[in-house]
Amino acid sequence: MRSYGQYCSIARALDVVGDRWTLLIVRELLLRGPCRFTDLKNGLPGVATNLLSTRLKELEDAGLISREDAPPPVATVLYALTDDGLALEPVLKALGLWGLRFMDAERPDDAFQARWLAYAPAWFATDADPDAPPAVVQLIASGEEAVIEIGGGEVRARAGRAADPDLVLEGPARAVLGLLTGVIGIDAATGIGLTTRGRAADVLARLRPVG
Amino acid sequence: MRSYGQYCSIARALDVVGDRWTLLIVRELLLRGPCRFTDLKNGLPGVATNLLSTRLKELEDAGLISREDAPPPVATVLYALTDDGLALEPVLKALGLWGLRFMDAERPDDAFQARWLAYAPAWFATDADPDAPPAVVQLIASGEEAVIEIGGGEVRARAGRAADPDLVLEGPARAVLGLLTGVIGIDAATGIGLTTRGRAADVLARLRPVG
DNA sequence: CGGTATCCAATATGATACTG
DNA sequence: CAGTATCATATTGGATACCG
Q1: What is the pLDDT of residues A97-146, one digit of tens each?
Q2: What keywords appear on the UniProt entry (chains A, B) (predicted)?
Q3: How many A×B Cβ pairs under 8 Å?
Q4: By the CB < 8 Å criterion, does B91 face chain A?
Q5: How much is the pTM?
Q6: Measuring CA to CA, which of A5, B80, B144, B182 is 20 to 30 A from B129?
Q7: DSSP strand E in chain B: where?
């Protein structure tokens, strides 16, 4: 990307991460941790391999990521965020929080991944009742599965299945994510296809959307 | 910009504001308030008029800005941020804070404006001694002038001159801004050309960089 | 002042093939 | 698997001219 040529920290930041795909690559590295080229490609549906390759070089030159030779079992290169790259987390959080307002439009051919299901509640909701015992919620949205644990004032999340969840939320991504991030209420979520198994009222009352 | 086609709030946000120039247009509207096409053009050195025009239409379609007919004295269209547009302020703050790390490279042909001098201390520094009487600091960097007032726990800023400042900081933008945002110390700033008039130690001790 | 219109250059996309 | 390479096409951006 050509530089904006402005001595302003916002313009400077955009000189580095304003290119198409760049911030989404950082998102993947942030959500996955160090990972391989193919992992990144899978997490970025639609990106061309040559473009991904170019961007990774640019990010390395800018000092945002590093290439590490993985130890024997993997025996390949892992891309990882440096400290400067990790420092973008607040930017992605702010952007993602702002972007929630556009999540009501779920288009039929949108890609969707368990990882994106997981980060939303972890980043955009908190535990309003830190002293209550931890609660585990299984999320199933548009076929993708994630687990959140609410407890100690925080919400933690990961992709996958829980053995014995206190609550299961299942339905279209728009319903599950909308409910968890506070964009819509339980009635509206149910109206667009959410189903619950377990003590929904108790657990959901603890979730407080940030902002 | 073509959509990323991902049901993820970060990708959705970038679908709307990920285009080149878009966030800088929002920056200008945020720093200036409602303003005219020409004002935006002046605040965005390097932007082509057709591109600015296109972006303004896109931003209007996305609901981030509105076009208002200004009252008689001005008699033209004013562009203003809507609530959705104003809500981008945390994004720009996060991006600008992150971008400070690239401000040590000041290129000779960079554009620089008083407004960009003003927002940095206001956004990225706080008053560490809220109970002390307010202090007024005149900034002069690379020929651009701004005033900051430190008091009540906050730092406020505007472009222009102060009648009777407690301190005058003058020098290259890199020195003045670096000092105010905590990137460099007073000795380093002096070393690259900063001059001070007034009680520098007292006033600067009150400035605490955020983050 | 507030834009449109036009043209050229640069970049992105997408497909596919190829290599160690 | 982890890319690099190449090519065709589409879209975008930049510069400039122009106009009500």
Answers
A1: 999 999 998 888 899 999 999 999 999 999 999 999 999 999 999 999 99
A2: DNA-binding, Transcription, Transcription regulation
A3: 159
A4: yes
A5: 0.96
A6: B144
A7: 65-69, 77-81, 125-127, 135-141, 144-151, 154-159, 167-171, 195-198, 207-209
